[in-house]
């Protein structure tokens, strides 16, 4: 069946089905997936929350977008804003947020194929492959680079004398690397075979990952501030930080705030007003305090299970969440709560691995089964020990179209979209509720 025929059938089936497009090298090209029946309002007896990482829990989506744009700049030889303005917010962002890296890169290669310069692509691919093998610290990525070199007829780089020499050297300087790049580019540019669409995607993915991992490596070495200055427009921000309200949300649903929850009301409202542009004067503080006290009491006796579910690979998610919890502990220490409570919550936030009840990354599945496929969320539900009869007691939080579909595909009927600035243009039909005010709004209006 072709896409058009499927679309006709889909219309007849209503809204509770989704058509998922697979990466280019997968059969079939499209899969028709049944979504869980939509639940309109959340149950009072929730048992778990499953939530996305990039764009929902943290600000890292910005780094992914930056790395994709960097990749496009490298392969089209347009490194500055004078030669190319960069990715288009409205047109491109819905296609490069929330899906698998392969699908994001496929979209960009297809959309900007006229701008790609094969020579630049070859040069940057060799650079990225060498960086990953010599400087990168993720072994899974190194293996993938080796497969790419093999697939693109350039495996002999691995046995090149100068490459091995640098590999065995204790410290590799930037000049060492640059010299090696030039040497290898000259030697292997002609034998490197990038012909089909799939080859273009494969080589470009390496460039994307190299940039992303270069940034993560800097973060893991405590150089977050320095890199932030190069990438973010707002220089006062951390490169990786929890999104507004994440700390309060996690502490609340885990029942950690007790009756001191009212001491963070102001902060919560501040977050909410900043995101939604609403004014504080319109908010009934007494009513909110009552609601928060009731919620806090409920979660204190029945804390929710919390899973974080991400299409990022383990290596990335580990660095990102470690940094997020570093910042969370700083945040909590500035909350206006008692000393003992602070100590208690900071202790709970000491390690993301012990905090979350389930932590699922792309490395638990495979690139071809990432969101919008159900797999990562199904794995999370299984790790949480939740049976399918109780899926209606789970709430799912996602900032992207494909994420919301993944949640519904996994059998969860109540999905809330929490778009951030760059994903507001997504289609959130699969969500029961779109909380433009992010997690603060989820606390104030949905729980
Ligand atoms: Mg996301």
Description:
- The chain is of the alpha/beta class.
- It contains 19 helices and 8 strands.
- The chain folds into 3 domains: 30 residues, no CATH class; 230 residues, Rossmann fold (3-Layer(aba) Sandwich); 171 residues, no CATH class.
- Helices cover 51% and strands 8% of the residues.
- The strands form 2 sheets. A 6-stranded parallel sheet has the order 5-4-3-6-7-8, with helices on one face. The chain has a two-stranded antiparallel ribbon with strand order 1-2.
- The longest helix has 24 residues.
- The mean pLDDT is 94.
- The site of magnesium ion (MG) has 9 residues, from loops.
- The site of magnesium ion has 9 residues, from loops.
């Amino acid at each position: 069946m072709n896409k058009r025929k499927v679309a006709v059938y889909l219309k007849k089936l209503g809204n509770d089905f989704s058509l998922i497009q697979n990466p280019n090298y997968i059969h079939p090209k499209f899969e028709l997936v049944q979504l869980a029946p939509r639940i309109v309002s959340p149950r009072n007896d929730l048992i778990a929350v499953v939530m996305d990482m990039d764009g929902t829990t943290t600000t890292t989506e910005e780094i992914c977008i930056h790395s994709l744009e960097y990749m496009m700049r490298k392969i089209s030889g347009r490194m500055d804003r004078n030669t190319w303005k960069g990715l288009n917010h409205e047109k491109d962002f819905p296609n490069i947020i929330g899906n698998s890296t392969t699908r994001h890169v496929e979209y960009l290669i297809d959309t900007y194929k006229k701008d790609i310069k094969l020579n630049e692509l070859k040069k940057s691919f060799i650079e990225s492959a060498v960086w990953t093998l010599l400087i990168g610290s993720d072994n899974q990525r190194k293996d993938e680079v080796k497969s790419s070199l093999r697939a693109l007829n350039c495996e002999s780089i691995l046995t090149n004398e100068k490459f091995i020499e640098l590999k065995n050297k204790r410290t590799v300087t930037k000049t060492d690397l640059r010299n090696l790049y030039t040497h290898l580019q000259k030697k292997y540019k002609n034998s490197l075979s990038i012909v089909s669409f799939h080859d273009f995607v494969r080589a470009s993915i390496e460039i994307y990952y190299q940039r992303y991992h270069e940034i993560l490596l800097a973060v893991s070495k405590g150089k977050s501030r320095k890199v932030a200055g190069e990438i973010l427009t707002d220089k006062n921000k951390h490169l990786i930080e929890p999104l507004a309200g994440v700390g309060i949300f996690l502490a609340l649903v885990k029942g950690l705030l007790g009756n001191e929850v009212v001491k963070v009301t102001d902060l919560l409202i501040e977050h909410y007003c900043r995101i939604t542009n609403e004014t504080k004067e319109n908010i009934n503080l007494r009513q909110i305090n009552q609601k928060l006290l009731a919620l806090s009491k409920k979660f204190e006796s029945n804390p929710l299970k919390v899973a974080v579910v991400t299409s990022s690979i383990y290596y990335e998610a580990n660095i990102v969440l470690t940094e997020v919890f570093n910042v969370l502990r700083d945040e909590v220490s500035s909350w206006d709560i008692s000393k003992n409570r602070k100590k208690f919550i900071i202790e709970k936030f000491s390690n993301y691995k012990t905090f979350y009840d389930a932590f699922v990354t792309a490395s638990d599945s495979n690139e071809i089964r990432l969101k919008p496929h159900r797999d990562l969320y199904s794995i999370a539900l299984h790790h949480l020990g939740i049976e399918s009869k109780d899926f209606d007691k789970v709430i799912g939080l996602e900032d992207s179209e494909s994420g919301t579909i993944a949640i519904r595909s996994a059998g969860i009927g109540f999905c809330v979209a929490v778009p951030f600035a760059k994903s507001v243009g997504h289609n959130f039909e699969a969500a029961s509720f779109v909380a433009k005010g992010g997690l603060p709004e989820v606390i104030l209006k949905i729980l």
